[in-house]
Amino acid sequence: MAATNTMKVTTTKKAAKKVAKKTVKREEALELSMLLAVKAAKLLLLKQQKISSLKITNKKAQGIASSADTESEALIVDGIKAKYPDHFILAEETAYKEYMGQMDRYKFLKEKEWVWIIDPLDGTNNFLNGLDYYGICISLVNFGEPVTGLVLRPTNGECFYAIKGKGSKLVNFSNSFKKKSKPVSLKKSTNKKSLCDSLLVTGFATEKGPVFDREFDLFKHMLGKSRGIRRMGSAALDLCYVARGVFDCFWEKGLAAWDVSAAGLICLEAGVKVSDYEGQKFHPFQETIVASRAPLHKEILSLFRNRL
What we know:
The chain is an alpha+beta fold. The protein has helices at 2-22, 26-48, 67-83, 92-99, 124-128, 210-225, 235-244, 257-269, 296-307; strands at residues 56-58, 64-66, 88-91, 115-122, 135-142, 145-153, 158-163, 168-174, 179-180, 184-185, 199-202, 228-230, 249-253, 273-275, 288-292. Helix 2 packs antiparallel against helix 3 (67-83) and helix 7 (235-244) packs parallel to helix 8.
């Protein structure tokens, strides 16, 4: 009996060690995300000074990519692999090569314990035209649910980040990323504005045709109901500015996980309601997304249901 008990204790210890190896400290994961995002930001700022020398790739319905995208991605991926070699990584440019834009093919990632989801340059069109509205997105996902998320805007140093259950914060980098401001919490609150007083932000499907026509029809309908709508060109930054309270609502159809994973968590942790067009709970692999604060969120979802 004693031998059996000893065997049980040994087995339990081995199991505990195995679990301990899989445990990820979210603060450390976020710290790594910020470190890598800053490095990528410096790279992108240098690349944007030499736009004419960048190699451009057309990804058909998935838009375009440049050598700046791929170099930023490689920097981030290599940094994650060095610390978390056993984690799966879903990064936009390498994912396109493997899945060719067929987004249903990576929904299996909801069953994996740890997945890093990366957009090395969200807003490539803006970047290539010298506009300053683009960002770097890094999130860590546990069984399909983001647990850390970070979005960094290189051109002004704004860095939005969140850890699940610990709120969202904003820091500002300055002096070529040598200085960092004190973090500011993105407070949880309601939005008491009516839709007619709200400033909205959205995007459109890259692929033209029936999908685009339906989205544009919805755009025209929402334009008539609101104070105005902006089309900025970076879904991740749009969502972060909803979290900050600059915009009152963001919606879009056909985004990929790397567009929304980090920013979706930032919104949720700032008290923003995030769902799909049907009101289903947010996860990074949904076909549609709507983000706004209560009670505006309910009003917008009602309009969507009646329109689509």
